[in-house]
Give the backbone structure.
Amino acid sequence: MTPDEFRRAVPALERWAWLDTPGSAPAAAPVASALRRAIDDQLSGEFDWTEWDAAADRARAAFAAWFGVPEQTVATVGSLAEAAATVARFRRPGRALLAADEFQSLLLPFVAEAARSARRPVELVEPVPGRSRSDGLLDRIRPGVSLVAVSETTTLDGERIDLAALRSRSDEVGAELFVNGTQSLGALRPPSHDVAPDFYAVHGYKWMLAPRGAAWLVATAESGERLASIAPGWKTAAGSEGLFGGRPLRTRSLARCDTSQAWLPWIGAEAAIGLLSALDAGAVEARAVGLADRFEECARALGAIPVRSGPGSHIRVVEVADPRGLDADLAEADVRARVTGNRLRVGVHGFNDESDIERVVAVLARRANRR
């Protein structure tokens, strides 16, 4: 699939310069079509709920093939928080190291487990102005740290974490590495083999173009052995008589860690994986990061100040001199981007093109000319 074909698969782009995928992506046509068919079948009574129920397993298999891991190493869950809570509950004793300003759905499950178990404390790394998150974490990885948990890309400032350096340093002290790819996977490629996280989680409703409610947890065979479902139910039961009685499933497949799947999100997720599988992941990443570089360069020339301290990603955040009315100016130009305080956040996917960057830059230029 070419970039132009990818763009045409997202109808909202006929109007919008959509640069708010860090919040949520607009619907891709194949995903919307799959959901519409399901709703129409339910309205007519022609749906088969057992077919719907199998969508999560089909999406698991498709995700594993696209991500490049064995299917038995993948669990289907409903959110990043569920994935993080699963790892936090069953991780090895020792300190978990996270950034103090890490995204809450990754951070709080570890904080909650630390309050429950004195054997699994949490150490938080406070941000230092002008210093990258990668360097801050690397300095604190030492014996006694059993796990490092990090988001590959943060929407707070758009920094791209040096996963290879974290992997190497974690290996030196025997710590496991948990990577949250919710703000990266789909626009950025899966982690390379030299990174190989022990745990990897992604909620698909942003860059993977799936509905909210479909998320994946990947674990290596060794690290995944300790995990179990935090909410066992009829999908993770063994030795049952039909749907009654039984015990929690014990199998080598990480499917034993599944949480109960909502049907419609997984119907959409299956279609989303089909779309992503038709793309060249390397080309998508190069396009997204290149356009993000272009935005930051132009915004800087107009007086905006990038806030990141480390390497940039497909997400960029800049401070603007006077944010008053910026939301309205962006809306008037049919630009979707996020304004918070004096910060403007722009997220670039492979479906974006130069015209999207030109439109958001034109808004900044008009405002600069008025000053």
User: Anything to note?
Assistant: The first helix runs from residue 3 to 8. The chain has 13 helices and 15 strands. The domain at 3-27+281-370 is CATH 3.90.1150.10 (Aspartate Aminotransferase, domain 1).
